[in-house]
Amino acid sequence: MKVSIIGAGNVGATCAEVIANRGIASEVVLVDIVEGYAEGKAMDIMQCAATSGFDTVVSGSTNDYSKTANSNVVVVTSGIPRKPGMTREELIGTNAAIVKTVIESALKFSKDAIFVIVTNPLDTMALAALKITGLPKNRIIGMGGALDSSRFRYFLSQKFQKPMADVEGLVIGGHGDTTMIPLTRFATYKGVPFSEFASEQDLEEVAKQTMVGGATLTKLLGTSAWYAPGASVSYIVDCILNDRKKMVPCSAFLQGEYGVKDLFIGVPCILGKNGIESIVEFNLNDAEKAKFNASVEAILETNKGLTNFLG
Ligand SMILES: NC(=O)c1ccc[n+]([C@@H]2O[C@H](COP(=O)([O-])OP(=O)(O)OC[C@H]3O[C@@H](n4cnc5c(N)ncnc54)[C@H](O)[C@@H]3O)[C@@H](O)[C@H]2O)c1
Ligand SMILES: O=C(O)C[C@H](O)C(=O)O
């Protein structure tokens, strides 16, 4: 199985490294616009193979998309990350143009691929990918909720001092500081809802930490995060290549689900060899529905910025 990752920066290279280390694909091709950069990252990763013991072949290419031919999955991580104090939405001007070029180039060589979009602003870039490729909606997946849910589980585990593996939690909505919706009502510790033993105030605090999880790391690092994002993308790639049928919150193109049409937003998805195989509709209460609707409105507003690029 072959995965191409366009953008060999922090997230792209981390994703390649995790895929190789976990043996998720037999071949990974990294592509970048900067001369020699993808080749260098690939060589560095390959020099782990002898000691880490993996068989995946990772190679790099400067803008030569013929090397990506016949990929099963194409991951799009090209584009600028935010700096401290910025929102993801502010990246649209630069990133929409980059996403358009790289997707057009990758699609020429991999007409059957499933595209996993990572570049921010995520939900809007996923919509751009759908419009640019004209692919069926199951083959465009926005990676946001997998990462946000992983952060939610981390903050729950920290706050309530529970092992992360015993904690479940899902984040839906937009992949934005104010549009994310950590579903505290559905969060559980070993099957027991946190709401049965934790105060509403504590859960609200965890939800707030989760929503600004990316901004917090951007402030600490001076650029946005990459380890958890790279691992989350690899998790999605694994679900596709190995037909896992796992439920993962992803940005998906809704066609009536959750009462929404023609918009990418984070919802629980079943991922398998066909990409998004179905969307799971949770029974949201009025407060959750109100948050979801506000998230939809915010994404619609950001999507207006695409008209300059896509018409
Ligand atoms: N969806 C998420 O959860 C999530 C998580 C983390 C980062 N991101 C986003 O992913 C993107 C990448 O983040 P990063 O930290 O890896 O940034 P980075 O700057 O480390 O890497 C981006 C790479 O893209 C390359 N690039 C730019 N234009 C290109 C083009 N036309 N063709 C090929 N390569 C090109 C750059 O040379 C660079 O190497 C950002 O937009 C960031 O906001 C999203
Ligand atoms: O925070 C960012 O800008 C990058 C990414 O979306 C993240 O959540 O880590």
From TrEMBL:
Keywords: NAD, Oxidoreductase, Tricarboxylic acid cycle. It catalyses: (S)-malate + NAD(+) = oxaloacetate + NADH + H(+). It is an enzyme of class 1 (oxidoreductase). It comes from the Bacteria. Substrate binds at residues 82, 88, 120, 151. Pfam families: Ldh_1_C (PF02866), Ldh_1_N (PF00056). Its EC number is 1.1.1.37. Residues 147-302 form the Lactate/malate dehydrogenase C-terminal domain. One of its GO terms (molecular function) is L-malate dehydrogenase (NAD+) activity. GO terms for biological process: lactate metabolic process; tricarboxylic acid cycle. The active site is at 175 (proton acceptor). NAD(+) binds at residues 7-12, 32, 95, 118-120. Residues 1-142 form the Lactate/malate dehydrogenase N-terminal domain. Belongs to the LDH/MDH superfamily. MDH type 3 family. NCBIfam families: MalateDH_bact, PRK06223.1. Catalyzes the reversible oxidation of malate to oxaloacetate. This is Malate dehydrogenase. It comes from Myroides albus.
